[in-house]
């Protein structure tokens, strides 16, 4: 259902008569996204879409608290906790813990389950924070009137990004699920795989959904920043078709008010960006830790037979390891690229304001622009984890280097044990 509706949005500019009402289509897309995140347990919110009373006739959305969402999260937490404990107990009772591979699997199952539980707890107990962030982003978007951006393709690009990311997310999950029961033809393996489905794969689904949610929010912030920058560019030049004499008749007070509104939107966007960064800090620390261990674990399973020259694992395991690596790499790359794009678009505002200062002849507006420029010099959007490290694309090289280092250490440790 979600994929079919999102596919409809992917064709939103193709002339289909069913999707000419852009505001309605965006509303349906927002509902699909929110339902998906509610299913993942990371959207404990209710939403209400209303048609605005102004001439634009746009849909505005408002988020409110949801007790049902908190109860659903409590059920997920109980399910993951009980099944993970039973999975570990099951492996111990059947002597599936004596070799290094089984210990690695048990440790990873415990870590990713704890991560998923803490993420669900975070979104349940900090519901007020998520409400504030969601409603502030909606207010900025409504203020900028970005719902009419299909003409220049910006809205279409945002929808296309969301659809493609969701399709890739579902593709990886489908491959992981479909390869789980292959070659598991014993009762013990089937029971263990079923427990993995509920514990590890559900936790993995929650973790990657949260990273996907963060990436979409970052893309929305980039989208809003681009809207502010476009309005600033439009502010700096006279309307087409009017001579300079006609243009100067526009009252200074109107232009000052327009500039003040743009600065207010920019300040609000900086504030909500900082709130987003702080809110996702420790969940991202847990997710990146799980991602890192998943990278090392999957790479170890692939490299171990190559180093020892033995065929210790089945082809099914290799496929799953490659899928694990691809899925985690995809989520991490999308996240870091979204962070970099948001920060880059934010830095463009400073350049545009400086260009406005150079081309401005009105002294009152010039003073406002200079104050705005001074504000921009001391304000910068960053997305980090407790200021320990930034989540931009520079993180990728650090992760690759760390994975290589730890993989070599583990392989050497295994060689020493074998000797």
Automatic annotation (TrEMBL):
The keyword Membrane applies. The chain crosses the membrane at residues 70-88, 108-125, 161-183, 195-217, 279-303, 395-413. The keyword Ribosomal protein does not apply. It is found in: Cell membrane. It comes from the Eukaryota. Keywords: Cell membrane, Membrane, Receptor, Transducer, Transmembrane, Transmembrane helix. GO terms for biological process: chemosensory behavior; male courtship behavior; sensory perception of taste; signal transduction. It holds the Pfam family 7tm_7. It is a multi-pass membrane protein. One of its GO terms (cellular component) is plasma membrane. Its main location: membrane. InterPro entries: 7TM_chemorcpt. Belongs to the insect chemoreceptor superfamily. Gustatory receptor (GR) family. PANTHER family: GUSTATORY AND PHEROMONE RECEPTOR 32A-RELATED, INVERTEBRATE GUSTATORY RECEPTOR. Gustatory receptor which mediates acceptance or avoidance behavior, depending on its substrates. This is Gustatory receptor.
């Amino acid at each position: 259902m979600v994929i079919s509706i999102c596919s409809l949005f992917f064709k939103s500019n193709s002339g289909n008569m069913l999707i000419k009402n852009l505001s309605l289509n965006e509303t349906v897309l927002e509902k699909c996204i929110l339902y998906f995140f509610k299913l993942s347990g990371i959207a404990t919110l209710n939403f209400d879409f209303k048609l605005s009373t102004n001439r634009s006739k746009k849909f505005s959305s408002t988020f409110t608290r949801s007790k049902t969402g908190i109860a659903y999260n409590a059920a997920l937490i109980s399910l993951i906790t009980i099944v993970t404990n039973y999975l570990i107990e099951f492996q111990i009772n059947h002597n599936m813990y004596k070799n290094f591979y089984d210990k690695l699997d048990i440790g990873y199952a415990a870590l990713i389950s704890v991560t998923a539980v803490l993420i669900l707890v975070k979104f349940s107990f900090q519901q007020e924070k998520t409400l504030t962030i969601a409603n502030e982003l909606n207010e900025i978007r409504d203020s900028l009137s970005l719902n009419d951006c299909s003409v220049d393709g910006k809205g279409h690009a945002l929808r296309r990004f969301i659809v493609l990311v969701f399709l890739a997310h579902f593709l990886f999950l489908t491959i992981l699920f479909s390869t789980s029961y292959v070659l598991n033809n014993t009762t013990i393996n089937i029971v263990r795989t079923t427990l993995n489905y509920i514990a590890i794969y559900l936790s993995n689904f929650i973790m990657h959904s949260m990273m996907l949610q963060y990436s979409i929010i970052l893309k929305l912030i980039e989208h809003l920043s681009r809207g502010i920058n476009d309005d600033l560019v439009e502010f700096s030049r006279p309307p087409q078709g009017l001579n300079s004499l006609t243009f100067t008749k526009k009252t200074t007070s109107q232009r000052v008010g327009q500039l003040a509104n743009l600065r207010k939107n920019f300040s609000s966007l900086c504030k909500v960006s900082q709130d987003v960064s702080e809110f996702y800090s420790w969940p991202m620390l847990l997710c990146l830790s799980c991602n890192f261990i998943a990278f090392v674990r999957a790479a170890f399973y692939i490299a171990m037979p190559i180093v020892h020259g033995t065929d210790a694992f089945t082809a099914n395991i290799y496929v799953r390891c490659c899928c694990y690596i691809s899925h985690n790499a995809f989520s991490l790359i999308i996240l870091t690229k979204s962070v970099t794009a948001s920060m880059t678009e934010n830095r463009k505002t400073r350049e545009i304001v400086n260009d406005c200062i150079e081309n401005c002849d009105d002294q009152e507006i010039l003073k406002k622009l200079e104050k705005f420029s001074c504000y921009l010099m001391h304000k910068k959007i960053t997305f980090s984890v407790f200021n320990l490290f930034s989540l931009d694309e520079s993180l990728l090289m650090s992760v690759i280097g760390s994975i290589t280092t730890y993989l070599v250490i583990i392989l050497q440790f295994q060689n020493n044990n074998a000797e």
